Every structure is written in structure tokens, then in C-alpha cells.
Amino acid sequence: MKAIVIEKYGDKDQLKEKEVSIPEVKDNQVLVEVKATSINPIDWKLREGFLKDKLDFDFPIILGWDAAGIVKKVGRGVTEFKEGDRVYARPATTRQGTYAEYTTVDQHLLALMPENITFEEAAAVPLAGQTAWQCLVDFGGIGEGDQVLIHAGSGGVGHYAIQIAKALGAQVAATASGENQSWVKELGTDRFINYKEEDFAEVLSGYDFVLDTLGGDIQEKSYQVLKEGGKLASIVQPPEGESAEKHGVEAEFVWLEESGRKLEKLSNLIVNGKLSSVIGHKLPLTENGLKEAHEISESHHAKGKIVIHV
Hints:
This is NADP-dependent oxidoreductase. The protein is α/β, with parallel strands linked by helices.
């Protein structure tokens, strides 16, 4: 099968197209014919070697941890899926990723695709959507009337977080650049903040929850907008305990714990028209396609999700 691999750490030029063997299916896995995958920051962070202490894989490595496709084979222990099912998943983080024509996925990480979306739209959801859910629901406990601030509302995690928060009945503020204002507001944003023209810390206060997707000074200033007892979830940088204690809030670094059950909850929102994928870029499964995709992601200015069609 065709796959895009890296054989050593480095820049985007390490992405190489290779013919590799179709992975073997274990008892608790299914083999998925990948129709689409998507790009997430973990892809290029691992490619650069930033995560080698946490994820020490042997080369070659197939990157990519989002998949939408068709079940082609099931392991002996699989009971919930069958050949021909349209599925999507955030597979386990292994060296056998999803920049490939086939990938294996553990049964407990899979969910059936909603019937009302394409493979490309489905592939955009698993990692970013589940991350947003884990931050807002599992950690944040967001509910009706809560005030929520989403940083980088035009990004992959951010644009799902806005929609999830609105579906839960929250009032949502989001930061983004002015060029993204129209569509970010269409997602349900109640208070749009053009970060180039407004300082969120000067115009917001008394918030219940902040989703930090940027880190650094943005994270530190975010404590100022939270009320006492509020919560901050960061997906980029472990929060400083002293800062959280000083402001009387709870702060946590969220590393995704993916699951098919969590993905099914997102599927329900999709079916009910409360969650959709914004795809800013669609590129092919080729060396040049993946290099361009990584370059866009590394710019931190991608609109919504970057999807790869296979």
C-alpha cells in the first residue's frame, strides 16, 4: 500500500512516499481502508522530534492520527463492527498512523460515521473534536448559562469547542483574527474578539471556563478573566500551579484520552445539526500534499481543519 513516512526526525522534507505492507489485524482490531485523514499539531511535532521522549518509536514512522474509511477486515474478537461499515476514529498513537491507504484501529476507538457527512468531514473530527469535548465536558463540566472563552476559535480544536459549548447552552466568547470573524460568529460565538484590535483580558471578566490553545502569555492572562472557582484547560502547555492558586481557579493540561464512546457523543451532535467540520484546506495523499499540509499547520493560521483525501 502507499504511505507517507518519515525515516528520521526533521523538517517537512522528511515526508517520503513509500510502498509498505498492509498492517496485520489483531484480534481486537479492524482494518480500515482509509478514505481521508487530517492534520493535527502532534503530526509535525512528532516529525520534528519534539515528542521523542514521550513517543519513542522506531523508524520508519507513518504519521497521522485521524481516519475515516471503510472496514475491510475484522479481528476474531471484534463484535461491534463488520466489513463494509463506514467508520471513523482517532486511532491509538503508534508508529502505524493514518497517512496511508490502510490502517488498523482498536475496536474500542471506533465509531460508525454519521450518515449525513462525507469521509473528509468525518476525518476532521476525531482528534480535535474529542479534545474539545474532553476539555469542555470531562474537565470543564460546562452547562447551561456558563460563560466560556475559546482561544483561537478559528482553529481545529477551537471551532469544534465553540459548537460544543453552544450545544451545551453556554455563552461563548472566542478570539481570532478579523478575517475569520464572519464564519466564527456563524458557529455560534456570542462575543467575538479580534485579537489584533482588542485585549481579551481587558474586556472580559467573571468567566466560568477558558480553553487555552495558545499557551505563553495568553495562558497567563487568561486567569484574569476567570471568576473564583473557574477552570482553565490547556492543550498546549501545562498551567502554572502557582498562577492558578493565586487566582483561585482550577487549571489542567489535557492530553486526549480517545474513545469510540466519546466519538459517538460527537456523532449525535453531528446528526442533530449541532456540530460540523470547517475544512479550510483539502490536499492529496502525496509527498507534496503532506508537505504543504504540514507547512500550513505549522503556520498556526489554518482555517478550521486541514484534510487529506486518499
